[in-house]
């Protein structure tokens, strides 16, 4: 089930204005079809069409199950650009080009749904009416027996009388914005209880000062070893949004448990330092394929490590963790500049068929969800305690910078008047009316560990749901 192979040659090529890398649903794609090889033909017919599809495949032994959905129907989004004789002389950089504009729909075309879905909606993750056009996607399991992709492309064909047909295929990447302003981040607090034991917890302790008799007593008598009890508080996000300029927050604080601490350590301020912060986002992909009477579902996952995650070295500046309930938690995500991958990384910096970080979405036969997983290690004196993070999170698409309807996603540097490109004039708009307007104001030794409490500390909690609005 391969993706559509791009095609481009001197015989025919599709070029996009400004070499645009991505678009939004509803955008106008401006481009041209170019033929650069010498040609003399009495009649040529040139067409250009827009296509979109979502496909899934599950292999079980010799049996394969597939899910096929047409998102944009090529025949309904087809234009004839030229019909007539063509003559291109050899050399001197001669060529012919034909401009075109294609408008991306905002929703998938439900008129070409498989018969199985029309008869029973259980073959689709979502009701098949009014499904928003999903973003481009590609993913394959490590065992290569499960895969799914969502692709969009422009296909140009030139039929040359008695000379055959030339074809060009240009992929178009689709991104979706989350409606409205940036999502307010939700944070959760996890408390993990730990105890550590050792004479090094006692202020001024030095093993070199002990006599041989005292060392043997320490070796065979654990009752006299001081014990320090503490709660490691970890705040971590439950919602993240692509392309947010801020870091990923992870906040830490150590709170002593004096009632479970040895008397010699009562009210002793302990030095607590960050040793390791290893955080990743797991992407869980679920695909659905057709079956005889029931659909076949399969899932797999891949991990994207947050940039800045690492084990601190001795050469690094120590990161001290606040001690005490009254101390302000430290945002170690800010200290280490913890960042997640952005849509720009996916558009420009990586091959599109590798495992990447995508926002959460659900369409007919493909669904993604996410988990935040990681390990936090804190060094208390010379002892190490560990806390783990393993919670579902929601990864939202970037915020809509216009906070309104989508606009054409075209490189700003390419917005230069050129006779090569033909752009439709802007629609006429009536001047705004100011009648009836009123003045407005602006206005978070591993001998004992247990999770004690998980609570939300966000001042503005988002409503729970299955996904971001408009991201079916």
Automatic annotation (TrEMBL):
This is Arrestin-like N-terminal domain-containing protein. InterPro entries: Arrestin-like_C, Arrestin_domain-protein. Residues 419-472 are annotated as: Disordered. It comes from Bionectria ochroleuca. Residues 438-455 have a biased composition (Basic and acidic residues). Belongs to the arrestin family.
